[in-house]
Specification:
By secondary structure, the chain is of the alpha/beta class. It has 2 domains: about 170 residues, Vaccinia Virus protein VP39 (Rossmann fold); about 55 residues. Helices cover about 25% and strands about 40% of the residues. It contains 7 helices and 11 strands. The protein has a 7-stranded mixed sheet, with helices on both faces. A 4-stranded antiparallel sheet has the order 6-7-8-9. A hairpin with a 2-residue loop joins strand 6 and strand 7. The N and C termini lie far apart (about 35 Å). The mean pLDDT is about 95. This is Methyltransferase domain-containing protein. GO terms for molecular function: transferase activity. It comes from Candidatus Kurthia intestinigallinarum. Pfam families: Methyltransf_25.
């Protein structure tokens, strides 16, 4: 993600409504937003819970801390290993952050850390994209740049696609100010099958529920987006 343009290009949508509603549904006293980025959802969560926002991207956290009511969140540079033990009623990972963990070892570390960090009965909730829908094919048909208006300046964001291989989709995002490229990042997303995600959670002892497209309907092969709700046993 590129913090400069992230909020402008990722407006509030159905997934944000789902996760903010989920926090109201479960009423966690304490929670962590893992991979919180620029804090767009984190600050909404803080209206209903005591929240810790964690992200390895210092630039993104710097953006988050400039926003109104940022003082209501504990911001922390780090990853899942920085989660406190038995500290949270809820750990969330939104915006398909789960897909950036490319190796099985890296993902399993996240799962184990989430389990360790939860109080008994607590939940680890995250979303991901369903590989059976092959959404990357739709992305690759769109070659037009995105336009981002930030602080009275207009930027173009160009995406170059590397393609899909062995469950991993690769692409590059570059931000241009006029003709000058000012920032660029290579991105890679792992598209795991639903049963693989579920098995990784059950392996450490989670009870798992799987929902589709940011509704409370059970996910199936036609669900573009999948939400996993993994509860730590009492």
């Amino acid at each position: 993600m590129i913090p400069l343009v992230y909020d402008v290009l990722n407006r509030w949508a159905k997934d944000d409504d789902f996760f903010s509603g989920l926090v109201k549904r479960y009423e966690p006293e304490t929670m962590a937003d893992l991979g919180c980025g620029t804090g767009r959802l984190t600050l909404r969560f803080a209206e209903d819970s005591k929240v810790t926002g964690i992200d390895p991207n210092e630039e993104a956290l710097a953006v988050a801390q400039t926003k109104p009511h940022a003082e209501n969140v504990t911001w922390r540079v780090g990853d899942s290993t920085t989660l406190e033990t038995a500290a949270y009623d809820l750990v969330v990972m939104t915006a398909n952050v789960s897909q950036v963990f490319l190796t099985d070892e890296a993902w399993q570390q996240v799962v184990e850390d989430a389990y360790r960090s939860l109080k008994p009965g607590g939940r680890f909730v995250f979303d991901t994209r369903n590989p059976t829908v092959r959404i990357w094919e739709q992305w690759m048909r769109d070659s037009s740049p995105d336009i981002a208006h930030v602080n009275d300046k207009t930027y173009e964001v160009h995406t170059t696609y590397g393609g899909y291989k062995n469950e991993i989709f690769s692409f590059n995002e570059a931000v241009f100010d006029g003709e000058q490229e000012i920032e660029s990042v290579d991105l890679h997303l792992r598209f795991r099958p639903i049963d693989v995600w579920q098995a990784s959670l059950e392996e450490v002892g989670f009870h798992v529920e799987v929902y589709g497209d940011f509704t409370w309907r059970t996910a199936d092969s036609h669900s573009e987006n999948v939400v996993f709700i993994a509860q730590k046993t009492l």
